UniProtKB/TrEMBL annotation, chain A:
Major localization class: membrane
Name of protein: Energy-coupling factor transport system permease protein
CDD domains xref list: EcfT (cd16914)
Entries under Pfam families matching the protein: CbiQ
Domain of life (superkingdom): Bacteria
TM ranges: 42-73, 80-103, 109-131, 189-210, 253-273
An example Gene Ontology CC term for this record: plasma membrane
Automatic annotation (TrEMBL), chain B:
PANTHER family on file: ENERGY-COUPLING FACTOR TRANSPORTER ATP-BINDING PROTEIN ECFA1 (PTHR43553:SF24), HEAVY METAL TRANSPORTER (PTHR43553)
The name this protein goes by in its record: Energy-coupling factor transport system ATP-binding protein
SUPFAM superfamilies (alphabetical): P-loop containing nucleoside triphosphate hydrolases
InterPro entries: AAA+_ATPase, ABC_transporter-like_ATP-bd, ABC_transporter-like_CS, ABC_transpr_CbiO/EcfA_su, ECF_ABC_transporter_ATP-bd, P-loop_NTPase
UniProt source species: Paenibacillus algorifonticola
GO cellular component, one term: ATP-binding cassette (ABC) transporter complex
Lineage: Bacteria, Bacillati, Bacillota, Bacilli, Bacillales
Membrane topology: Peripheral membrane protein
Keyword Ribosomal protein: no
Tree of life domain: Bacteria
Family: Belongs to the ABC transporter superfamily.
SMART domains per the UniProt record, alphabetical: AAA
Domain ABC transporter: 26-264, 362-597
UniProt keywords, alphabetically: ATP-binding, Cell membrane, Membrane, Nucleotide-binding, Translocase, Transport
Amino acid sequence: MEAIKQNLIDKLSVEQIKIELMRTAFGRQSTFLSRFDPRILIIWYSFFAIAPWFIHNKIILLGLLVPIIVLTLSSKVSPLVLIIMGVGLVSEISYILLGSLLFGGSLASFWPLMTLTLKILLISLASIAVFSSMDPEKLSDALLSLGMPAQFSFGVSYGYRMLPILIEEYHNIIHSFRLRGRSPQRKGIFGWRSLVYLAAISVRAFYPLILNTAKRTRTTVEALEVRGFTYSLVSPDAKKLKLAYLRIRPLDFVFLGCSLCYMIALAVAGQHFSL
Amino acid sequence: MSSLQHAAAATMTSRAADSSAPTPIIEMNDVSFQYPGAEGMALQEIRLTVQPGEFIAIAGTNGSGKSTLCKCLNGLIPNYYVGDLSGSIQVAGMDASNETVSSLSRKVTYVFQDFENQLVRPTVYDEACFAPLNYGYADYRQRGERALAMLGLEPLRDQWIWQLSGGQKHMTALAGALALDPDVIIVDEPVAQLDPYHAKLIYDKLAMLNKQYGKTIIVIEHHTEFIADYCDKVVLMDSGTIRWIKPVQEALSCVDELAALNILPPQVTLAVRNWEARRGQLAAATARQLYPITLAEAAVYFQKDMEAVDARQKGYQPQAALPSTEQAETISGRESQALSLFANPVPALAKASDAASPQELIRFANVSYGYKTITRALHPVIRDLNLSIYEGERIALVGNNGAGKSTLLKLISGIRRPNKGELTVCGRLTKRHSPEQLSEFVSFIYQHPEEMFIEDSVRKDVEFFPKARKKEGYSAFVDEVLERLRLTKLQDRDGRLLSGGQQRRATLAIGLAMRPTVMLLDEPTASLDASSRREMTAMLAELQDQVKATLIATHDMQLVAEWANRVIVMHNGRVLLDTDTRSLFRELHVLEQAGLIPPQITLLSDRLGLEPPCLSVDELQSRLTGAAFVDTAEQLPREEVITSGSH
């Protein structure tokens, strides 16, 4: 019994989460969305991130949800991400329901709150679909091309490079705590003492991580200097060269056009029907 | 005595007179530099001329100004580190004082000591293209590709940086430097962070770049065995000044001078030097200035010398090579003598047959372990392993990268659990116990000390374990541990800010404060300089009174030779060989398969046909000398013989 429990904990372990995270970031899968120019995707995404806040028609919102769900599924998103989202969604809906019923409300107050949930769902799914399809390198280049400062776009891609190393180091530091620490003798109800113990470690492990990172950046900064990064910030050639590969092709316009047509159709439909 | 005089004489004739040659690629004249806010000068009156196509080693102790010197060449000093710089520096036809970092560092590229932090891009290919892209070369892709091709890195082209091994990362950093098509490549301590096998690969590539492409190579290096094999010239630095510049053989023959600066000469050079000293030939050898510095040279030397000795002393059997039936007896006779003097006590293999066998501490029963890769496929690391570890064992785990050494240690410590099979540690199944529970018996010292410093002072780190367990009187015990490891003065410092050797000592203190039954250490001598390494080896030898068994995963074959009493060679997650040190070095093909390089002295004794091979310079000495020379040896003052230490 104990072994099975331990096994289950292992399955939900840091290790597992690590793999899923890495998979999301470094999976290198080609998906439907990854075919398009990253700048087009960013523009497309920014519409879906903002527009839902100003749309109150549920028909339109639900109409938007359908293609977004399809796109999310086509992006081969890690199940872990979907599960986390699912858990978040279910718990949100249930607490809204409980809240409105407990405090004397009725379904009348429940409905508008559900609209909010729907909007949030829409936006999060769009984010997941776009960002898991777009490799951070392309994102970084797209940002640069759209006029973001080079330091910022470099930061995105450097973060991408460092992520696995930081995760690994964080994990090792947590082990360091565990290899010297002492877990609570009595686990408490639902193992709350153990949970508190582990939670405390996972927070404390950030400090050594941050200090170690600060230490190692010294070389990084020198290396950036000698490898011409500072030079590239002031030279227009480097930027031009770097972004030369980004091309907006007819396919991108087709994608934008289709999206636009769909939106118009939805808007028309929203005029005639309502929920 | 007289060797010191030689050294002094050599110093006098030092400054190589090669100013006659045409336009040097680097010319430094009376260069001095002081870091802002620093008290002393970092560089003082440096005069250095480097011709195109030279392969130069800069040696010196920590803080002697080696890196500072090199940073003057690519403009980091004084553009990035603003300080007081005087004197003139000419690099590739440019006057450095009029140039920027960006113009200089296209001609002079730099591979840092902690090269991992110099890699800033996600993939190998991106990394190779990074610098040319930044400098706006339209052909940056071709440059990147070409650099990868020159180093044979095409197969890794699309790999993520984080997936690479240390050696591959270093190659990638080199490719990133090479892509600029520089005239000068500076590599800062390549051997420090790599195992000898991969360090050799890097040096082979550097030699190729030097010969085939005419690149000028400057390495900051104190591993003299590499200097001897690859470099033309040695620049010896000492507290900010250049002590001398000499051709490599002359430089490495200054055995005593180098040793005084904590730079150990090649083992073979030491062997020859001690051999001559012991035979009392030093004076007679009439101002011999040059010793053999490479394995091949030393082998020739000893073979010749043996023959000479043999001719002189008729009736005494020659000790070297070409074993005949007559000699076999002599050698084996001497072998037993040497074994009694130098061999490690009780080969581990004896325990199986021993009736009163020592306590079994750890048992692997059909253990397999693997981890999931990002394709969710299981990557096996340990395959169906059966192994027992007993009290009193000092085990060296050796094998190439990815052989499963570190994973084996992690399994014992409980931070990894077997996928299959059962692993028992001190009577407890690791599956059923948390790392916290296992830590009562096992302490695991990581390869990277920074990952063990979880508090803000050394003392707090050392007392973390006993304090968490509220051990009685732990404070006094911690005092004692700190004292034993000479950390008392450093106890309030943050572990991260200590030097490499101090960090290792601190992690050892952390381990000892846990009063473990079994101690696990992952690469305890990696990236240490010669003196810290020697110190570490000595401390590891003391461990055996504190713990019942020790396991060390290492690439350091000298440590293996001098410390272990059982060696486990791992390959692809399996045990390839489980033996004692002496038999290990007999199995040269197994070592080769596992990507291991035996100590130079072992290779030398192998070339001389000594069976079994010797493990240390002293041992070679005594085996070669045999009974005939024992008397002279005893008369020799102790200081005359420099022992090899760990290197």
